[in-house]
Amino acid sequence: MSTATATQETNTQSLAHLAGKYLTFFLGGETYGIPVLKVREIISLLPITPVPQVPAYMKGVINLRGKVIPVVDLRTKFQLPEAEATGNTCIVVVQVGQTAHSQGKLVGIIVDAVEEVANVNAADIEPTPDFGTSLSVDYILGMAKLKGVVKALLDIDKIISAEGVEAISSQAAA
Amino acid sequence: MNFSSLTIGKRILIGFGFQLLLMFLLGIFAVVEMQKSTRLSNEVSDESVPFNQAAGALALNFSELRLNARVFGTTGNENDWKFTMDVVPRVEENLAKLKELTTKAKTLKEASSLIQEFDLTFQTYLKTLRDTAEVWAQLKKINQDFVENTSDSVKTIYDYIHEMEAELNKEILANVGAEKLQERVLKITKANLILDAVNETKQAFFIAQAQRDFSLYEKETKKLNEALNLIAEIKPITRQAINQQRLQNIESKIIGLQNLSKKCLEGFQSLNQSNQARAKAGEDAFRVLQKMLDYSNSISSDSSQKVSSSLESTSRVSVFGMLIILILAIIGALWIIRSIVTVLTHAVENLSEGAEQVASASVQISSSSQSLAEGASEQAASLEETSASLEQISSMTKRNAENALSAKDLAAQTRAAAEHGSENMQAMNRAMADIQTSSDNISKIIKTIDEIAFQTNILALNAAVEAARAGEAGMGFAVVADEVRALAQRSAQAAKETAERIEDSIRKSAIGVELSAKVADSLQEIVNKVRQVDELVAEIATASREQSQGIEQVNSAVTQMDKVTQQNAAAAEQSASASEQLSAQAQNLRSLVAELQQLVTGASHSHKSQFFTRQPVSSPTPKDQIIVSAPKSDHRKDHLSTNIHKQLPSRDPKDKENISSPPKLHPPTAQKKKNPEEEIPLDEVFKDF
């Protein structure tokens, strides 16, 4: 216990930059959070146009106020079972591949429901637990403890690579 | 047809009928045979016998004819001829009679040829007879001539001799010489010799005629030749013309005699021939007659034999038939008697046994009658108790019936209430359905609210994201967004709760609908059950009424039973006395059976008979008679019971009192008034008889 507390203390320093506002959402019964600055917009579910020859998690593209953006099904991406869309199902439009001189690309991700924009303190953030060498967990920024529930803070840039998105976007544009 | 099922009368009738039938058949046979014999004997008497008689008469007449003819043939007498001729018509008459018989008769066909033959021979015979007569006529003429001739001859010779003798005498007187005298004597001697010859011839002729021996006569005729020689000798010496004429005359006469002799000889020869021919014809005719007689005799004897054989066969068959009938009669009689006696013996044995059993049974009846009387009085007491109980039951049943009626009313009310409840339930169901539709509408509204809340939430989140992007500038906006989001969440929450409530109310109203349906079913069931209850109660009411009536009937029946039981007691006493009578009758029966047994088997059961001498029944009343004779048949039993029933009411005053006091709970209804015999089976009581 003492060693664990020590480890936690050492990690707190490194995880301090992760504190901030996060948009939390539900997927497959679990709650995840993505940094609110990555979120561009939240829209209700729109008709999705399927695109051929793309990975399975790519559902297709939508027309967002005249702008065609790809849509990723996080359930498929996270290898969760398929589910029907409900009234709460939303598309969260996020900005990926954002750098100092590039605004990056807009990508929609389908989530079961959006919860809130929560302010996460550094103290509430825990590092990602090591599940073993073979499992890659680098798309998880950390684990936030909010109102007694552990929520995975997702690094959306790592989940959706800009290249893949660009490929889709170019395809869709073409 | 089963013989053993016949009555004795029929058996005897059949037996005697069979015998009589056989006798009758035999009689018919005998009569037929007798008639045949009569016909045959009639033939004999009508044909054979008259034929025989006529043939006999014919033979007799013919024999007479032959005899007379024979006599006539030998004598040639006129009388004999007349006799003979007298017989001929009689022969012809008989012949005619025979012919008539033959033509009429059936059995004498062969006789006609014989008669014809006889007729033929008879005619022949008559012809020969006439020939004989002719011959005789010739002979008579010859005889006459002969006699005349001889007489003339003799006269002439005498004349000659007398002349000579006269001459001689003259010459002697005249003394004419010896020579002359000698000549004269010679002449006389010769003449005498001639006379002798003629006389001898005549004599021989008659002798020959008498003796029918013409050989002798032939010898004598030679003398005529000698006489002729003598005449020739004296002729030359006769000188006188007259004498010469005389000699010539004599000579001619003698020659005539010779001729006559010859003729006579011939005539006799022809007579002989004729006689022989007649005899032959007569023999022929007689032979034919003999044949006829033989035939007639044979016919007669044949017919007689037929008659006698027929009669003999008839008598033989009759005797044989009589014997058979006798044997059959004996066998039949024995059989019938045996069958009857077997049956009777069996019956008598059974009767004997039965009489014994009746005797013993009568004693048992006596004791059982007494116990029956006791039982009957006990039964009467029990019946009174039963009657009282029945009264109670009857009142209870009436109350039951009343209760059933009020229960029926209540059931009807219940049913009406249940039906009303059912109608209300249906109204409630409709209200529930309305509630459900309203809830659905509300639910739609809530969904809309929920969607608005969701959109608001998204908007609030977007605002929050935008506020976050705005950094420090968006702090206040972030707060507003948060509030908006909280409001949206609250409205969503409220909508959710409202929806839950409404869903709950819908669910509950559905449950209510279900429950109300169940209640409606239950109510319907209640209605049905109540209807059944109603019907059952109605049935109970009816049944109670009927029960009440039935109890009344039972009550009246019990009254009757009581009465009958009293009667039973009296009857039992009577049967006790009757059984004594029965015992006496049984003794009588036994003695009668013994007599019958003696009659049937012949065996002496005298010891029994003596033992069971016939006893007169001591003062038997008609009723007692009936009781004694009651067990013989079932319908007699019925008579008995009715008899007792009729006689009972005036039997015993005490009993009458008992009888006349049955419990008067319910007056017996007229339709249920039963005959005591139907209720109390007296037959079963008397079955032990």
Describe the structure.
- The complex is a heterodimer of chains A (174) and B (689).
- Chain A has 174 residues and is α+β, with helices and mostly antiparallel strands.
- Chain A has a single domain (2-173), classed as OB fold (Dihydrolipoamide Acetyltransferase, E2P).
- Chain A has four helices and eleven strands, in the order αβββββαββββββαα.
- Chain A has helices at 2-15, 74-77, 156-159, 162-173; strands spanning 20-27, 30-35, 39-44, 58-64, 67-73, 90-96, 105-111, 113-120, 125-126, 140-146, 149-154.
- In chain A, strand 1 and strand 2 (30-35) form a beta hairpin.
- In chain A, 32% of the residues are buried.
- Helices cover 89% and strands 0% of the residues of chain B.
- At the A-B interface, strand 3 and strand 8 of A face helix 6 and helix 7 of B.
Report the helical percentage of chain A. 10-25%
Could you say which overall geometry of chain A the principal axes of the C-alpha atoms support?
Answer: globular
Assigned CATH architecture of chain A: Beta Barrel
List the secondary-structure elements of chain A in sequence, H or E.
HEEEEEHEEEEEEHH
- Tell me about the largest β-sheet of chain A: 6 strands, mixed
Into which percentage range does the β-strand content of chain A fall?
35-45%
What does the radius of gyration of chain B come to?
Answer: 83 Å
Oligomer: heterodimer
In DSSP terms, counting alpha (H) and pi (I) runs of 4 or more, how many helices of chain A? 4
- CATH class type of chain A: Mainly Beta
Q: Stretches of chain A where pLDDT falls below 50 for ≥5 residues?
A: 1-10
Measured on Cα atoms, how large is the radius of gyration of chain A?
17 Å
Average pLDDT score of chain B? 77
Strand content of chain B: under 5%
One letter per element, helices H and strands E, the order of chain B comes to HHHHHHHHHHHHH
Secondary structure class of chain A reads alpha+beta
How many β-strand runs of chain A? 11
Q: Strand order across the biggest sheet of chain A? A: 8-1-2-11-10-9
Distance between the termini of chain B: 36 Å
